[in-house]
Write a structure and sequence with these properties.
The structure holds two protein chains of two kinds.
Chain A lengths: L1 H10 L7 H41 L3 H7 L11 H10 L1 H32 L5 H13 L3 H13 L6 H25 L3 H9 L4 H12 L1 H17 L2 H6 L8 H10 L5 H35 L1
Helix pairs in contact in A: 1-2, 2-14, 4-14, 5-8, 5-11, 6-8, 8-11, 9-10, 11-14, 13-14
Chain B lengths: L17 H6 L2 H29 L2 E2 L7 E2 L3 H7 L2 H40 L1 H16 L2 H11 L6 H8 L13 H16 L1 H13 L2 H9 L4 H12 L1 H17 L2 H6 L11 H11 L3 H34 L1
Antiparallel strand pairs in B: 1-2
Helix pairs in contact in B: 2-15, 4-5, 4-8, 4-9, 4-12, 5-9, 12-15, 14-15
Classes of the chains: A mainly alpha, B mainly alpha.
C-alpha cells in the first residue's frame, strides 16, 4: 500500500507537463506492485474455484481409486458408473424436468402478474399506489418461515399439498412481489407521449398494454423472467416442505436431502454435486448475454 | 380521450390534458390489480395473520388448538436455544454482510483500478466471474459441495492438509462444536463474496474519472483516493448491499439444513432452522410461529432503520 501511495504521488508533480508522460513513468514504478496485486487476486480466485475443481476431479473417479489415492489425485481412469448409477437411482432426469417446469412456470406467470400489477400502479396510477408498492416490497422481505405453516396447512386442506402447482402458485406471488415493485417504478417514467398517441388512436387499455407497453418494456421483462427463473430454480426451503414425494422433487431438494442424510459415499456425492452445479453454470452462460443486453437497454432508456 | 369514453374522468381538474386523462379512469385500471391482488391476499396476507394467530396458541398441528396468549413469547425469551440461534444470526451477519462487504470493496477497487487499468478489462471481468461463480449455484448445492469437502474421514480438505504435512490440523470441521460455526461462516463468506464484488465494480464505473484525475494531480495516494472518493461515491450501492445481505443472513436456512442441521447441539442453529424444527420435527406449531414472528419483526425494524439512515445520509450530502 505504501509503495502504491508514494509512487503515485511522485507520478503527478506539477512539473510534469503532460499526463501521458506521467502515466508512463507511473507504470514503470508500479511494475512490481501490479504483478503482486495480480498474483494475490489470482490466488484468491484459485481458492474460490478450489471446491469446483475437486468436485470435477472426483466425480469421475472410482470408489476404489478414491479410497487408495485420496481426493486430490488425478483419476486413473474416467469412471462414469458412479454418476450413471446416481442418475438412475434418483431419476435425475425427472428432477431436472421438475425444476425446469416449476421455475419456467413461475418465471412466466410471475412476469405476467408483475406486468398487470405494474400497469395499474405505474401507468394507471391507481389511488393508494404508494402504499400498495410498499406492501409488495415488505412482502418480499418477509422470511418464508412466517408464512410456511399456514401455507402448509391451507394446501393440505384444499388438496394441493405435495403438488408442483402449490409451489408454482406460492413462488409466482413471492417473485411478482419483487417484480411489481421494480416494474412499477420503471413504468412511473414511461414516456407519456407514447401513451397519448395510443389513446388518440383509439386503443383500449388492454390493447395499449399489449401493443405499446409490452413491446417497449420487453428488455426489462426479459431480465425479470431470467431472475425469476434462476431464483426459483435455486429455492430450497419451500420446495423442501411442499414436495415430499420423490416424483415431485426439484434438483436442490433431491440433492440437499440426500446430503443432509449423509447416505452417499464420497465419489457418488461428488458426482451428484457436479450434476447440481452444471445446470446453474449452463443457465448463467446462456443468460449472461441477455442480462447484459437487458441492463444496457435499461440504461439507455 | 377517445380511448376511454366509457370511463369519464372522475376528477374534473385533469380533464384538460390527455396525458393525465390516461391516468384517470382508475376503476378500469384496478381490474389489472385483481389477479395479483387476490393471489397476494391468499399467499401472503392471510398466512401472515394466521401465523400471528398461531403464535398465541398451543397446537401440535392436528387436533385441538388452545389459546395461551403470550405464553409462547415468555417461554421463548427464557429459552437458551432461542438466544443461541440469534447469537448465531450475529455470526451469520459477520460472515454474510460485514466480511463480504469489506473484502468485496477492496477486491472491486483493486480489480477496477489495478487489474482493469493495467492488465485490461478482460482480465478484470474474468477474475470477477471467478469470484462470482459460487453465487450462481443453488445454495443447497453449495452446501453439498462443502459438506463433501469437509468430511472428517476422507474429505478433500483433510486430505489436502495431510498432503502438505499439516495433518495435525485435520479435524471433524462440521462435527466439532468448536469449529462448526467458524467453518459454516467461512463457507458463507465464500458463497457471498461475489455479490458485492459485482455490484461495487458496476458502481465504480459510474464514478466520474475526472474526480480521480484531479485527486491524483493534487498528489493524493491510492488509499486516500479510495477513502475520499470511492467510498462516498458508491455509498448508495453499499447501503443496498448491506441491507439485502443482512436480510439474507437473518433468513439463512438451506446451508444450515444441508451442512449441519443446526448441530452439533445448537452450535450452528439459526432462527429459521429453529422455527422449522418446532414446526415440523417437534410439532410445536405455536412456538415455531412465535419464533418466525420475532424474526419478521427484527427484519422489519432493521430495514426501517437502514432506509432511514440512508435517507439521512443522502440529505446530509445534499445539505
Amino acid at each position: 500500500m505504501t509503495t502504491l501511495e508514494s509512487t503515485s504521488t511522485a507520478a503527478g508533480p506539477p512539473a510534469e507537463p503532460s499526463p501521458a508522460t506521467g502515466r508512463r513513468r507511473d507504470r514503470h514504478h508500479r511494475g512490481a506492485v501490479r504483478w503482486i496485486v495480480l498474483a494475490v487476486l489470482v490466488a484468491g480466485a484459485v481458492v474460490m474455484l478450489f471446491p469446483f475443481g475437486v468436485i470435477v476431479l472426483n466425480a469421475f473417479k472410482s470408489p476404489a481409486d478414491y479410497s487408495t489415492a485420496g481426493p486430490l489425485s488425478l483419476p486413473t481412469e474416467i469412471y462414469t458408473t458412479g454418476m450413471v448409477d446416481f442418475w438412475n437411482r434418483v431419476n435425475f432426469g425427472q428432477k431436472l424436468w421438475n425444476s425446469f417446469f416449476i421455475a419456467g412456470s413461475v418465471a412466466v406467470l410471475g412476469v405476467l402478474i408483475s406486468l398487470f400489477n405494474a400497469y395499474a400502479l405505474g401507468i394507471g396510477r391507481v389511488r393508494g399506489r404508494l402504499s400498495i408498492v410498499v406492501l409488495f416490497l415488505m412482502a418480499n422481505m418477509l422470511p418464508q418461515e412466517t408464512l410456511i405453516y399456514p401455507l402448509y396447512y391451507i394446501s393440505k386442506e384444499i388438496g394441493l399439498y405435495d403438488t408442483q402447482l402449490a409451489v408454482i402458485i406460492i413462488f409466482t406471488v413471492i417473485q411478482s412481489a419483487f417484480g411489481t415493485y421494480l416494474l412499477a417504478s420503471v413504468f412511473g417514467t414511461f414516456p407519456k407521449e407514447v401513451l397519448e398517441a395510443a389513446a388518440l388512436d383509439g386503443a383500449s387499455k388492454w390493447q395499449t398494454l399489449w401493443r405499446v407497453v409490452f413491446p417497449i418494456s420487453r428488455p426489462t421483462l426479459s431480465v425479470l423472467l431470467i431472475f425469476f427463473f434462476i431464483w426459483t430454480w435455486n429455492e430450497f426451503f419451500i420446495p423442501l416442505i411442499f414436495l415430499i414425494s420423490n416424483d415431485n422433487q426439484t434438483v436442490p431438494v433431491a440433492l440437499g436431502v440426500l446430503e443432509g442424510d449423509r447416505l452417499m459415499d464420497a465419489t457418488t456425492t461428488s458426482a451428484a454435486a457436479l450434476l447440481g452445479v452444471v445446470p446453474a453454470i449452463v443457465f448463467f452462460l446462456i443468460f449472461q448475454r441477455t442480462l447484459a443486453r437487458g441492463i444496457t437497454a435499461g440504461a439507455v432508456k | 380521450m377517445v380511448a376511454t369514453p366509457s370511463t369519464p374522468p372522475t376528477r374534473p381538474r385533469s380533464r384538460g390534458r390527455v396525458a393525465s386523462g390516461i391516468g384517470e379512469g382508475g376503476r378500469a385500471y384496478w381490474l389489472y390489480l385483481l389477479p395479483g391482488g387476490l393471489l397476494f391476499l391468499g399467499v401472503i396476507v392471510v398466512p401472515f395473520f394466521m401465523n400471528l394467530g398461531l403464535s398465541l396458541a398451543k397446537w401440535p398441528g392436528i387436533g385441538e388448538l388452545t389459546w395461551i396468549g403470550f405464553d409462547n413469547y415468555t417461554e421463548l425469551f427464557a429459552d437458551d436455544a432461542f438466544w443461541a440461534s440469534f447469537r448465531n444470526s450475529v455470526a451469520m451477519i459477520v460472515a454474510m454482510v460485514i466480511a463480504p462487504t469489506v473484502i468485496g470493496l477492496i477486491l472491486a477497487a483493486v480489480l477496477f483500478d489495478v487489474i482493469g487499468k493495467r492488465f485490461g478489462g478482460r482480465s478484470a471481468s474474468a477474475l470477477r466471474a471467478m469470484y462470482y461463480l459460487p453465487q450462481i449455484i443453488p445454495v443447497a448445492v453449495a452446501g453439498i459441495v462443502w459438506g463433501w469437502i469437509l468430511r472428517p474421514d476422507n474429505g478433500a480438505l483433510n486430505g489436502l492438509l495431510d498432503a502438505v504435512g499439516l495433518d495435525g490440523l485435520a479435524q471433524n470441521w462440521l462435527g466439532d462444536p468448536d469449529t462448526a460455526m467458524p467453518t459454516v461462516m467461512a463457507i458463507m463468506v465464500w458463497v457471498q463474496i461475489g455479490y458485492p464484488v459485482v455490484i461495487f465494480m458496476a458502481a465504480l464505473q459510474r464514478v466520474d474519472p475526472e474526480l480521480y484525475e484531479a485527486a491524483e494531480i493534487d498528489g493524493a495516494g491510492w488509499f486516500r483516493r479510495f477513502r475520499a472518493i470511492t467510498l462516498p461515491q458508491i455509498r448508495p450501492e453499499t447501503f443496498v448491499v448491506t441491507l439485502t445481505c443482512t436480510i439474507a443472513a437473518l433468513k439463512v436456512f438451506g446451508p444450515i439444513f444441508v451442512l449441519t442441521r443446526g448441530g452439533p447441539g445448537n452450535a450452528t442453529n439459526v432462527p429459521s432452522y429453529f422455527a422449522y424444527q418446532n414446526f415440523f420435527e417437534k410439532a410445536r406449531v405455536g412456538y415455531g410461529a412465535a419464533i418466525a414472528t420475532v424474526l419478521t419483526l427484527i427484519i422489519i425494524v432493521l430495514s426501517i432503520v437502514f432506509i432511514r439512515a440512508q435517507a439521512a445520509s443522502e440529505r446530509k450530502d445534499r445539505g
